Amino acid sequence: MKNNNNEIHKLDPEDAQKALLKIQEYLRNQTPNNEINKQNVINDLTIENNLNNFINDLHPADIAFILESLPKDKRQKIWSIVNEDYKADIIIEVENWVRKSLVEIMEHDNLVSIISKLDADELAYIAQDLPADAISEVQKGLNEEERLKFIEALGYPEESVGAIMDFEMVKVREDITLEVVLRYLRRLQELPDHTDQIFVVDRQDKMQGVLPLTTILVREPETEVKSVMSSDFLTLNPLDSDIDAAGAFERYDLVSAPVIDDSGRLVGRVTIADVVDVIQENSQVQELSRAGLQEEDMFSPLSTAIMNRAPWLLVNLFTASISSFIASRFEDTVSKLVILAFLMSIVAGIGGNSGNQTMTMVIRALATGHITERDLWQLVKREILVASLVGSCGSIVAAIFAWAMSKSIMIALVMMGAIICNVIIGTIIGVLVPILRARFKKDPAIGSSVLLTFATDSLGFLIFLGLATIFLI
């Protein structure tokens, strides 16, 4: 992309942050509605023109980032001054919740004009965020081939390879020479993005092999495709998990991969750009899920935010109440040894930290496919061993601290035993919760930290105060 003075715009990750700060300053300098006069109108027009020029000099990806970083009213204002030529790229780039807020302020004809510029696979990708009448009208303008691709893409479930695959690719036959391939490529206006290989198919579009671009460049033009194509290549099925596809790209250092159906027919391809989007989205979902949250507009109304966050907070309140109830059952013990009230939070905290480390590793391993539920008991035994060793070392330090505060060897020993037990409990919970959720086809990350905290707090208090009651009272 170029800026207004025809200089090349150098992409820099910090550009979007700097641009966001500048736009926020522009918006702050605009006159409030109740202070309008002639001079203010002139000032506002100047700011508007400057803002217009500044916004449309940015890369569409930077504009998408800015839209995601603004409250809804300001986001919609910026959207209204974005160049129409950029809007198709931006509407694909932004998060779902931002796209919905932009679509709701667009007139029907304007929306149809923008989304009609999208490819069939891109249109299918955002179809759930668009009005049905707009999709229907755009679909009428597609040719037969594009319409079939659009319908096919819509038919694949979310989080599948079919939902992210690209229909733009270069195909050739195996019985032609590299010179013919080169002539064919030169007739194209441009190659599809991330084209590192050409797919070799027969007359029924069944995959025969792949032809790397580097091979075309270094081999003699008279060479036939079938003699230099590679028959050792990775293929994906449209119903494969997109996360599994991302793992394959990482494992084999792929830039693109063909997608073939059950009959071996080439139906599309997946590129590294698609995979990066999947990895980023999956990472964001996992981070939110662990706290029991769903995808949310950071600037959404209070009612929406409350409905999103309240359920798991109420669960957390309930579990914390149970922990407090357990602690209250040992009121006599704590009243006789007040020092226990200061030490029991250490027991709970160390158990929770140990469990959180284990849980993070297990969730990541499940996401990458490195472990399955068959590994459950082996994994539990290993983590218990690790937790016992780590807990023992930590418990010695905690026991020394407890002795320094209480001058009591028995309190130090109780502290030591409680920490070892709670670390092991936290580790077991850290393994079991995500694996069991995965077994029942649930997101292993959702609410995991809440459940872990409940277990380590409640059982930590019970073990520590229970041991204190037995050995110290």
UniProtKB/TrEMBL annotation:
InterPro entries: CBS_dom (IPR000644), CBS_dom_sf (IPR046342), Mg_transptr_MgtE_intracell_dom (IPR006668), MgtE_N_sf (IPR038076), MgtE_transporter (IPR006669), SLC41_membr_dom (IPR006667), SLC41_membr_dom_sf (IPR036739). It comes from the Bacteria. The chain crosses the membrane at residues 310-327, 333-351, 384-403, 409-433, 445-472. Keywords: CBS domain, Cell membrane, Magnesium, Membrane, Metal-binding, Transmembrane, Transmembrane helix, Transport. Residues 165-227, 229-285 form the CBS domain. GO terms for molecular function: magnesium ion transmembrane transporter activity; metal ion binding. It is a multi-pass membrane protein. It holds the Pfam family CBS. Acts as a magnesium transporter. Belongs to the SLC41A transporter family. This is Magnesium transporter MgtE. The lineage of its organism: Bacteria, Pseudomonadati, Pseudomonadota, Betaproteobacteria, Candidatus Kinetoplastidibacterium.
